[in-house]
Amino acid sequence: MQEFGGDLKAVLAKLKEAGVDSSAVIRRDGVIIEADLPGSPEEKESFAAMAAALLGAAETAASELRQGVPRRVIMEAGDRRIVELGAGPVALLVASLSAGPQFTRALKEIDRAAHEVRGIVKALQPA
Prior knowledge:
This protein has helices spanning 5-17, 41-64, 103-120, and strands at 20-27, 32-36, 73-77, 80-86, 91-98. The protein is an alpha+beta fold and 127 residues long. It has one domain (5-124): Beta-Lactamase (2-Layer Sandwich). A five-stranded antiparallel beta sheet has the order 2-1-5-4-3, sandwiched between helices. Helix 1 packs antiparallel against helix 3 (103-120).
């Protein structure tokens, strides 16, 4: 992990305040950069890999249909939502939350957080 781990922890903590239960910043190859996720280390690693694959597949599908880059991917499971957004060329942000009345406000905070993460992880981008 790079020296920006504290900055990323602060971003994820702000999401918690907005109603997000768990979140993570993940490299596009599926490696966790920073996370506030439940579960064992193995479960977290598996989740990160699958989250990266899901966003990558959505981006590929949209590209094949010439629809541009997806702004976000939202997966619905019961009363839960998992939201994924690209956070620059090397990272993505994943957030899990309830689908209750705070969902729209939380989406705005997730968008803001992805923008903030993009700036923080810029150091990871290839030159």
